[in-house]
Design goal:
The complex is a heterodimer. Chain A is an alpha/beta fold. Chain A has 10 helices and 4 strands. By secondary structure, chain B is mostly beta strands. The chains are: A alpha/beta, B mainly beta.
Chain lengths: 214, 87
Amino acid sequence: MPHDHHEHLSPSGHPFRADDDGHLTYWQAMEIAVRELLIEKGVTTAAEIMGQIDAMDARHPSHGAKVVARIWTDPDFRAAMQADASEATREMGYDIGPMKLIAVENTAALHNIVVCTLCSCYPRNLLGLPPDWYKSRAYRSRTVREPRRVLAEFGVNLPAGVEVRVHDSTADMRYIVIPSRPTGTAGWSADALAALVTRDSMIGTGLPKSPEGG
Amino acid sequence: MPELVRVRADMPPGHVRTPAYLRGKCGVIERTLGPFRNPEQLAYGVKAQALPLHRVRFTMAEVWGADAETPTDTIEAEIYAHWLEPA
């Protein structure tokens, strides 16, 4: 094996990720065995499994952004979301499966932020897969302990008069933050507004983009 | 008048969805959801009891005491009924 000291770094200077070619773990082998048995016994098909993976991969923060923009522009929908966010989201046309959703709205005096300290609960059925940092021990432990420092690291500096409310997603419900509508967007269409809604603004670690762009 | 409750201070073994940092802490019930089946039983495949699930609001001062980053900020978490007692 050549002893080239650049061997462990990519051309961009980052270490290569180790190849995942070790032995299967007990549970990996169990998952494959159960999946193959379910297919062999006709309980499900490979196409159904692939279809479900495709459906999961198709979920994207842009779905949540459209929900937020509609809340900003449609008072009846806003009321429906407050009453039952799961049902209102389904009626808008999103297949969120059995997910039970709560929408928590930011105001001039309140900033909401979502975390799951126990694991990584996230409204995947609406927003897609969570960012890696959402599952990190640092985010999960620090957000309930020092949310303002965490927010500052995300570039969100809140005045002292704004209450920070941390939602620890500990059990059956999932949460989406409804950020405040940016000023300077009067008369904007829901589609134009949706383009301002970022994934992080629906987790609470960010704010929507400003209408000037940025 | 919001209902004041205390999270049981117990530390039982097994699959429990009551965060340890909230055990023994007092808060108010923000809303009641469910009933949902008890995850402490579901996790082991035994018959699971349907329980109310309460969203409880705690102040940072209550949870972290003098070390609170901003004492008036709040934390809300979902706590199953059998983990709550009158405060």
